[in-house]
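Subject: mismatched residue count in predicted assembly?

I count 737 residues in my input, but I want to confirm that the predicted structure covers every chain. Input:
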Amino acid sequence: MKHTVSVLVANRSGVLARIASLFSRRGFNIDSLSVGTTEDPTVSRITIVVEGDDQVLEQVTKQLNKLIDVYKVSDITNDPSIDRDLALIKVKATSSTRSEIMQIVDIFRGKIVDVATGSLVVEVTGNEEKVNAIEELLRPFGIIELVRTGKIAMARGEK
Amino acid sequence: MKITGAEIIVKSLLEEDVEKIFGYPGGAVIPLYDVLYEYEEEIEHVLTRHEQWAIHAADGYARSTGEPGVCIATSGPGATNLVTGLATAHMDSIPIVAFTGQVPTHMLGTDAFQEADITGITLPITKHNYLVQDVKELPRIIKEAFHIATTGRPGPVLIDLPKDIQNEEAVFDYPTEVNLPGYKPNYTGHGLQIKEAAKVINEAERPLIYAGGGVISSGAADELRELAQKATIPVTTTLMGLGSFPETDNLALGMLGMHGTEQANYAVCEADLLIAVGARFDDRVTGKLETFAPNADIIHIDIDPAEISKRVLIDVPIVGDVKQILTELNEQVEGKEHKEWNKKVANWKSKSIVQKEPLQDKVTPKGVINQIYESTNGEALIATEVGQNQMWAALYYKYTKPRSFSSSGGLGTMGYGFPAALGIQVGNPDEPVFCIAGDGCFQMNAMELATAIHYELPVNIAILNNNYLGMVRQWQEIFYDKRYSSTCLQRRNSCPPNCSSPGDQCPELVPDFVKLAESFGALGIRVTKAEEIKPALEKAIASPKPVVLDFIIEREANVFPMVPAGGELDNMILGGDE
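Triage response: the counts match. Full output below for your records.
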């Protein structure tokens, strides 16, 4: 099963390697990873999406907790939470397809952030499924390049 | 007043009451050694003949004294030579603070001479590690390193010291406290869980205590004995737990697991309650997981929450310090006799092969180890190498005190024993120290005789010499149809191919351990007859020199009982006529 693990860590060098190695020693492939500082500049939040056996992941979570540079680990897979991906999609566009592409982008509340004679760059945010859906719809036009951030997530409510 | 980074390190060591360190100098730690030269009176530096032996010596020092072991190596190859020692200490939760030299900060990452990314390399085999990038951070880092190494579940911490940091100057102000928001070990067990455990113990009919190294590192041997004796619960220990419960006690069953005793393994299979204390259900302990303690509820007391239900599902987990939890638990546990259960256990014990094996008129592992026990009144501090010698040392010596047995349990590091014995002797100058070794292991570290001579450490090395890599040979005999592939240490090119048994035509034993010992100025004694064992040991114990005892044992001697890897604990190979 796919898990989203949110980790609060000390914002210093080497921390990411420590965390990644706990996943790699079990042979887990990290699907997505995003790192950024929090409201406190000495603290970073790492959001990891990883596929793995529930029990083994619980074990990995406990081992993450043991790292000196890790402040807090939560598996938020089943918690009510908001999660977002951001994608930049460079898609082929001719005078005949441009307006159709713009309509699709509109429906997905995306933005056109660059226009050239033969291409458009689309910016879209949303949960993973939404970003996947627009990617599928744009594919027939010819995707030249695609960049996605990892998932970032936050629990709902005051928690 | 400002002082150099190197001086800060030494002053910090003094703040941490470090009196002995083990190490090996090199280009990137010359500034540090230059300061140590000035402090020779306060801190004794033991120069080993290889960095790996320095860290094993620090490890033996730590295991036998309870104080953190400290070692130093230079950058690059010096640092990478510590890797096995760090992994050994990490697996067995031994507090060590290791200092490594590093190339100057401006050269980091440039493949400079003797550069190795040692913090990267040792990341999964240290409890924590540091690359110092600012001399002003040194006191805080050293304070934290000692704190992390010695508290919670202990372990090794490495501090990497770029050469320019050792030379730069800063004001020395050693912190009195640490501030580590990500590191707050939980010592107090949950009250309700302790209550639940007491209830389960009071209701059990066939309880069994399974004690590990955590009892020793927590200093909880007295509390463990109180629990066992109050409710008359038999105790089996892991390899790491040897010494946590006196094996002279009627309730002691000895070690469990792959080479555990019959009574211990049968008891695990029949118990209705298993009380795991500071142990981690290692695969060498459990055998086949599905049939481990099949009839038992399991209580698990451990400082490390990540150990709970890691391999075996736990019914009553209690996370915290073993000593504190046992103290509370003992107040709630009722006195009970478990007469029938103990009778059954005692019956197994009286029939066990370890107990029954007769002392023969030839040199046997049991004969040698029994005599070490007798000749030292059971007061010896024992270090072992790894393999058959280690298992024999675990089975035949009766450990009665915590910290009297040091062995590489988790990693199984051949070559650990002799340097560890040196560290033990440095920390316990007045105690008799024995390294129980095999001829294979001793050939990994024999050069340390130089260190033993240099520092006048009268360590006794008892080699159980079968001229085989005995444990692997035993597996080859039992599971690989006696195909003794690369395990014979006597083998020469002139030997017939595909040898499957030793015979009269075998070439001479090499090396001659007696002559080897003498070449260092140590005492060498060869023992080939049973009646020579006692006088040889008495001579060794009386000798102020290090002694190499070369006990020539039967070439194909085996360790029994034995549970094949992944097998069921009550399905033991007992050897002999069985």
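Chain B has three domains: 2-171, 191-352, 356-552. Marking this ticket as 'not a bug'.
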